[in-house]
Amino acid sequence: MSSACPSTAAVQLCYEHLNGSCVKTPYSPGPRLKIYQYKFGTLLHCCGNLLVMISILHFKQLHSPTNFLIASLACADFLVGVTVMPFSTVRSVESCWYFGQRYCQLHSCFEGSFCYASIYHLCFISLDRYIAITDPLVYPTRFTVSVSGMCIASSWLFSIIFSFSLLGTGANAAGLEDLVSALTCVGGCQIAVNQSWVLVSFLVFFIPTLVMITVYFKIFLIAKQQARKIESLNNKTGRCSDSFQDRVAKRERKAARTLGVAVLAFLVSWLPYFLDSIIDAFLGFITPTYVYEILVWIAYYNSAMNPLIYAFFYPWFRKAIKLIVTGKVLRENSSTVNLFSGIEDHFSEKQKQSKHPTAEPWPAIFPNLKPCSSAMRM
Fold first, then answer.
1. Considering the domain boundaries, does residue 21 fall inside one?
2. Which CATH number do you get for residue 353?
């Protein structure tokens, strides 16, 4: 970062006229502008999650337990983009915190609350999918709207209580008073976490991660078994064709690819950050500032990837976006359109009597499971 600093010998401070100000290590104007342009992705991040929320909450066909979880996940990710990322952008580029010590603490609490909420929503979505795949006939009675609401409430409550009780009370810095005192200056916003709490934080992250990996692996195995059973049944009845076998193979590959992307994106985004937190706590906070900033932003952008992975892959969401962007969502009875028909037919009277009253977000990943039973509808 020093190569980007001005050539003047004078030391720059965050607040030139205040004693105890932090030293400022800014980028030169050119790199600074490029970095701000890159961080402009925050706006796209917010728009993507906002579109998910509007789509699910507006269109009645998408009112389902699973989709309510996805909408709540989008809300958590949206709040990361509104309350956390813009202020972190300024801190990363200017190397100073200009928003006051009180909001520094709130910023850290928001960061923890919304990011943990996002993680636990992803975990509950994986459990929901596992129940739907393993017990499609009883799934509608086991995972109802009330159960979905309980999952949403528990995700939010646990994340908020944990983050605010840890960071809001200062328990994270117990035993690190000398380090915190040395780091404290006007225009700084550094949060130190002691060894005990960094291990607890890692467990809070690791447990839902382990659940997701285990559940998605089982889902993938079940999907392959069901695809093979369908192929075997068609072979026995003499109705199997090469084209059908090709479709089964493609479905298996698509299931593996989509699940792999979901789990891999989650791990790549969050695992480096939490591992670095553990290393820092036990080795005396040796991570350079720029490395820490990179890891933080990789974790932030997982919130931007969630709409792509959990919503943009679904045709119904692309149709919903078209209706929202073109303003058709403002028409009378637009909430009752059928998102599974052609866009041109959305506002016809026949579509209001559609025989598919609820959304089926997962068949885009497991299309071979669609004919199993109407009980699989979300």
1. no
2. 1.20.1070.10
Q: Is the CB of residue 373 less than 8 Å from the CB of residue 137? A: yes
Residue pLDDT, tens place only, 240-297: 544 555 555 455 455 446 666 777 788 888 899 999 999 988 888 888 888 888 898 8
Strand partners, 23: 13
Flag whether pLDDT at 345 surpasses 90. Answer: no
Tell me the one-letter amino acid at 296: V
Q: Number of structural domains, the chain?
A: 1
Q: Is residue 8 part of a domain?
A: no
> What's the rounded Cα separation, in Å, for the pair 59 and 324?
11
Has residue 24 been placed in a domain? no
Domain membership flag for residue 255: yes
Characterize 192-215 residue by residue with b for buried, 16 or more Cβ atoms within 10 angstroms of its Cβ, and e for exposed. bbeeebbbebbebbeebbebbeeb
151 DSSP 8-state letter = H
Kind plus residue range of the DSSP H or E element containing 135: none
Residue with tokens 């009780």, as numbered in its chain: 165
Structural domain containing residue 242: 40-376
